Each structure stands twice: as C-alpha cells, then as structure tokens.
C-alpha cells in the first residue's frame, strides 16, 4: 500500500536521513551519498529519488573539456559543453546512477546564457541525449531560462531556485522589489508551459522561510526552503 502523500519535494545533499526523506514525494540527492539499498528503501516507500547532475561545471580531476575558469562559489571548473568527452562523461554518469535505482535526475548549472551563450545549443543537445537515455525517468531542470521554450519539451519540471530569497554576506535576505517583479514574470511564463514548476529558496529564520513559501504558493509552486549547502532538512 502506498503511503499517504507527503511533502512535495526536498533538496538534501547530506547523508543518513532515509527515514526523514521518506516523508517527501520526490527528493533530490547526491547519488554518491546513498547506497543502492538506501535508494531502494526510499522507492519502496513511495518516494521518487532524483540524482544531482551538473551539466556545465565539473568538480572532477583535470580533463580536456574543462575551461580555465572556475565557479567562485563552489570551485567547479566551467566546461566546454559541446566537447564530445564531456557528453560521454555525463552520459556515463547517468548510466551509473540509474543502476542505483534512481527514478530521475536534477539537471543543474543550466544558466550559461550570460557567461557562455555559444554553448546553449550544445547544452540543449546534452539534455536531449539524457532524455533519450533515461525516458521515462523524471527530469527536473534548474532554471535554464535561456533554453526555453525548447527545454520544456525535454523535461518534466523546472525548478525556480532562489525565487524569493538569496544568500548575502550577513546570511540570507529577500531579493529587492525589482528582482522579485522580474522573477514573478518568469514564474508566470513557466506556469504557462506544460511542465511542473517548483521553487527552492534559502532562509535562516522562520519568518523569511514562511515569506518564501507564501510567495511561491501565490504562483502555485511547491517551495522547499533550505540553507546554502542544502545539508539540512527542515524540522517536521
């Protein structure tokens, strides 16, 4: 018997929380943090685990597809998305993650329209290759607004990360009003597409977390609120 519907989605990059994750319908996790048995334990309890995939940054050892520049926040090397070796590397990772029993993938680092716009067609091709390899698994894209509307034909859902709040030097804070207005217009555009839409926000106080959830709810978006490293789960 399937358990009652739980919270819609969680983003958790820590470990040792199988029981807590089992209270969500869908969870995004780092596949190397969980064993095949852990994944199976989630699936049998009605959870759909999604594995994290970065499509334009590489945190691995030096490789021919890497650019010289790195992400200043997380340290990963930016990549030449169209390099055949990068595509092979990503698809091999997808195959390995599927063998763990994952029920889909979270496609991250899609926002390259301002940094490497020449790679956008290659990025769309890579997403299409993942779609072909994994169908009918669930694909959730993180933002990727520069790839729309074509991206919507290849994925099942889009995540609007940092919809209402963001990291700042002092911790976390709402976006200023002009940015919130821009985000509202993007949300309306996403909701006009034939995909599921979620929000992910960051907060360190109950007040900011509730504000983020309430604002996302006005757009019909389930919202998960976490900390910057997504290493904690909210209290039940």
Calculate Rg over CA atoms.
Answer: 17 Å
β-strand number: 13
Biggest β-sheet: strands ordered side by side in the sheet? 1-2-3-7-8-9-12-13
How is the biggest beta sheet arranged?
Answer: 8 strands, parallel
Classify the beta-strand content into a percent band: 25-35%
Discrete helix count: 6
Question: Which class of secondary structure composition applies to the elements?
Answer: alpha/beta
What's the helix-strand series? EHEHEEEEHEHEEEEHEHE
- Overall mean pLDDT stands at 94
Organism: Kibdelosporangium banguiense
Protein name: Glycoside-hydrolase family GH114 TIM-barrel domain-containing protein
InterPro entries: Aldolase_TIM, GH
What would a concise description of this structure say?
The protein has helices at 18-21, 36-44, 84-99, 120-134, 177-191, 206-218, and strands spanning 7-11, 24-29, 48-54, 57-58, 66-70, 77-79, 104-108, 138-142, 157-161, 165-168, 171-174, 196-202, 223-226. It starts with 6 loop residues before the first strand and ends in a 10-residue tail after the last strand. With 236 residues, the protein is of the alpha/beta class.
Please describe what this structure looks like:
There is one protein chain. The protein contains six helices and 13 strands. The chain has 236 residues and is an alpha/beta fold. The strands form three sheets. It has an eight-stranded parallel sheet. A three-stranded antiparallel sheet has the order 4-6-5, with no helix packed on it. A hairpin with a 2-residue loop joins strand 10 and strand 11.
